[in-house]
Amino acid sequence: xxxSQLDIQLKTPDQIEKMRAAGLVVAxxxxxxxxxVAPGVSTADLDAIAESTIxxxxxxxxxxxxxxxxxxxxxxxxxxxxxAIPGPxxxxxxxxLISIDCGxxxxxxxxxxxITVAVGEVAPGLLKMVAVAEDAMWAGIAAAARGAANxxxxxxxxxxxxxxxxxxxxxxxxxxxxxxxxxxxxxxQDPHVLNHGRPHKGPRLVPGMALAIEPMIxxxxxxTFELADGWTVVTxxxxxxxxxxxxxxxxxxxxxxxTAPDGGRARLGDLVTARQPADSPAR
Length: 283
Hints:
Number of helices: 5
Mean pLDDT: 95
Strand order of the largest sheet: 10-9-11-16-17
Shape: globular
Helix content: 25-40%
Low-confidence stretches: 278-283
């Protein structure tokens, strides 16, 4: 492991393998929580699923105790964008959207991912917003893979791909002040990855980089504020929000989406590293 460009931690292929193991723990926890989401389920119920799944795999929840955060997941419902604290009094209702952010550390290496899930029957416009956020995330990952492969990629190529995809998808707010990040032996590392911006700026995209790509978009204004709990970020106009995230790593022969069970193959095809087929099958 070495450092390059700002204070970016570059990983060896063996270290990325370890991050993949942590990523699969996160993927399994998110899968179990997605299956459990339903009207009447509390965010505390989901948090318990995450913690038990992570600890059963021999890992530790990344979020617990992080700057005093008291839970294993962030469970942001409707106008809550990110960092909401789960609790027994927050019970999901038909028509809600819930963004679930989850992290795990295994053998000293972190995985981090987020999904936005519909609760029961949800308005079609909200489902489209979630799909646009997911498309933007995958566009950002693809831009990183192509930029590293041709040797000309820069960090903001990811940002530009995310923004361009969101703008093509509709009139959504792109939340500012929050975004993706480097990840490895710490959950949050350099560089910060904006979800908007001009391309071809910032550090070069090179093998060994591991990044969490995480668009956050809203049905209205991108402006947000933090609640009195010191964590929960909500939209200023109370419009609904979506947040999705994957951890990915760049290798010499392609990208590896470490928190996707298939490594990203279904969405990225041949951009995915050749070592992906040797993975354990998706659970």
